[in-house]
Amino acid sequence: MKRIGYWVTDKKFKKMRFASFHDICRDAGYEAVRIKEPEDLEKQGPFDVFIHKLSDDIGSALDGDEEAKELVQKFQSHFQRCPSLLVIDPFDKVARMIDRREQYQAARDCFQKLQDDQYFIPNFVELTNTDVSSNKKLIEQAGITFPFIYKPAAAHGSAECHHLAVVFNEDGLRDLPPPCVAQNFTNHDAVLYKVYIIGDHIQVVKRPSLKNFKQGGSKESTVFFDSYGVSKPNSNSHLNKLDLKEEEPSDKTVLLSPDLDKVRKMVTALRSSLKLELLGIDLIIEKTTGRYAVIDINSFPGYDGVDNFFEVLLDMLSKRLQPNEREGTRKRKSSEPLEKDLHT
């Protein structure tokens, strides 16, 4: 019997109802094992595959948190002792998604290789200090105009990672604690598409998002918000509500509905580049052009709204455990250390 080990927080275990995963696995001839104590990995194993939601811990470890470092290192040591273990997803690949600048650059490089201008990453730049004059030069050099979105540099590791802001003018540059990323705001009629990926399986879920803002900036004060709150399914934030004059489509409005063939082409390219099996892509469609903008990528997202998640997950794992699939997966070196040294 193939054994599937997994690590998730208590919160994710309950929210995603992981208890049902055990029943689904058992019925299909697999054994699911929830790992609670990394000290006893050898006793709980052996495992054929290991899946995890350790992105926050990896983010904290890279930020210097000693407890998180110890946790991550325990798993890495086990992986190194078990080179045939299939890890989804490899820690070094997940680590690339922690830093937003690095994440955006990786996606931008992917789209440039794709040579298809219907996909893009809105212009971005990393800001590492509070000097308004130098930051103004940086955003101008990066082709960023007001309004833009402020995002903490770290995409995982703490609740603060999801505390964003809309910056409307130069005065707002004083409001931004570094390190952070400034990214052009793209009007998209307050509609966000969560693109959930489980191996080859793709599902798109529509969510609320930020309303349109006047391009070129304004005198408005910086607006801080929680990205989770604004984009949750039942969000009723004033930031979701289009202005009355924009509720009816104009002649310049492009129909905001994703073409699934275009989405699949985008996902195939990103998966090939990022080497991740479990990921979520935040996709918006530019109001006036219909181009597809990727504004965030997350490893092992919540999969809210995905039909039969655990059945799809098990199907993906079953395929990856086949001998012909495993040979290609081994090339990823699942035990490869993180790109940044956790021991420093």
UniProtKB/TrEMBL annotation:
Keyword Metal-binding in annotation: yes
EC nos: 2.7.1.134
Sequence segments annotated as region (Disordered): 323-344
UniProt superkingdom: Eukaryota
Gene3D superfamilies the record matches: 3.30.1490.220, 3.40.50.11370, ATP-grasp fold, B domain
Domain (Inositol 1,3,4-trisphosphate 5/6-kinase ATP-grasp): residue spans on this chain: 116-317
Keyword annotations of the record: ATP-binding, Kinase, Magnesium, Metal-binding, Nucleotide-binding, Transferase
Primary enzyme class: transferase
Positions with a binding annotation for Mg(2+) 1: D282, D296
Co-factor note (free text): Binds 2 magnesium ions per subunit.
Catalyzed reactions per annotation: 1D-myo-inositol 3,4,5,6-tetrakisphosphate + ATP = 1D-myo-inositol 1,3,4,5,6-pentakisphosphate + ADP + H(+)
Binding site for ATP: 100, 151, 183-194, 209
The keyword Magnesium is annotated on this UniProt entry: yes
Signal sequence residues: none
Cellular component terms per the entry's GO annotation: cytoplasm
Stated role: Kinase that can phosphorylate various inositol polyphosphate such as Ins(3,4,5,6)P4 or Ins(1,3,4)P3.
Descriptive protein name: Inositol-tetrakisphosphate 1-kinase
